[in-house]
Amino acid sequence: MIRVGIIGATGYAGGELVRILAGHKNAEIKWYGSRSYIDQKYADVYRNMFQIVDSVCMDDNMEELASRVDVIFTATPQGLCASLINEEILSKTKIIDLSADFRLKDVAVYEKWYKIEHKAPQFIDEAVYGLCEVNREDIKKARLTANPGCYTTCSILTAYPLAKEGLIDMNTLIIDAKSGTSGAGRGAKLSNLFCEVNENIKAYGVATHRHTPEIEEQLGYAAGEKTVLNFTPHLVPMNRGILATEYAKLKKDMTWEDVKEIYDKYYKNEKFIRVLDKDVCPETKWVEGSNYVDIGFQIDKRTGRIIMMGAIDNLVKGAAGQAVQSMNLMFGEKESEGLELIPMFP
Known about the structure:
Elements: E1 2-7, H1 12-21, E2 27-33, H2 42-45, H3 62-66, E3 71-74, H4 80-84, H5 87-92, E4 94-97, H6 107-114, E5 128-129, H7 132-140, E6 144-146, H8 150-164, E7 168-179, H9 194-197, E8 202-203, H10 212-223, E9 230-235, E10 242-250, H11 256-267, E11 273-275, E12 293-300, E13 305-312, H12 316-330
Parallel strand pairs: 1-2, 1-3, 3-4, 4-6, 5-6, 7-9, 11-12
Antiparallel strand pairs: 7-10, 8-9, 10-13, 12-13
Helix pairs in contact: 1-12, 7-12, 8-10
């Protein structure tokens, strides 16, 4: 049985970790960490856990937690994990960090985009980027995994096969993405109030969104070249889901069947990636509550561009589900354990 501790258990991603791990055959949560709700019953914070979780929230003492569990999930804001982690902790337990603290390999890039000082740069090189479909073998050996962001997971996986095969001009890549409001976290913010979000759609972080360098770095690794792209996120009035629509110039003339063959080369045996049939576009409602990524594409012969589309649930494959997927790999479990969640509808 894998003993689990969660720091940030009462945020949206933390709550989703609890929901998923409650159905995991070989994992048991020993620590529900939440600085905001110390000594309060977890089920009083999330009443969907009434008579399911009979524990109280604890603090974020990673030193103490490391001696009690086999793995710690940190579902916390940027900067916290890096401020707590040290070699002694990593010698006792594995860490899966859902923040951006260890995703970017260049500390200067992290500090520029996140506007905070990195407190543990000595662990950046060791950290494995937790995109399971790309870095599976490295994750198996990791003691520190950097869980990808939600926008990045969808954006990278949607374009990865074509970038890897060198079939798109990376300098022409434009990513337009939409997210539900849970992606902004559970904290009270004026811009996330019902009256602000309902009956509205808006772009934000235009040319400045913090996930941009993460997408550029990972797709750059795939393409084998420095990649600079446009990424524009939008907020839409729904709870969950991300839809990414990506545009790029094809380097050669290709048919739909040619492109499908490339996607199948990389994803045919991936349980959680579903490449859709011809003329079928991904929709967030068909992945909601699940760890699936739905991918579709269309070739625009008139412009010589390919339009790639991907949909995920931002709290599952975009956060907690992907983290559990990494945990399964790190502990030799069946990769899909606890994650065989059929998408919810309606």
